[in-house]
Amino acid sequence: MDHDTFSSDDFIGEATVHVKELLEMGVEKGTAELRPTKYNIVDSDLSFVGELLIGVSYSLLQDRGMDGEQFGGWKHSQVD
Question: Whose CA is closest to 54, among 70, 38, 72, 30?
């Protein structure tokens, strides 16, 4: 979405980022990264309309020695 202050936001497209291998490597090594890469954006008639720069990093959450009870979350949630 783009952001408009005085009117509704406009849908500008969508993207899919496949991260299965990133997650597998992150679990195995503790961290993984997809370096920032530029992708061309093309319209339905294949005309160039811009670029998208995207990068992703993944790190395992380190155990901080706290019990899950201290965080709340799903243990304290209820379905109505």
Answer: 38
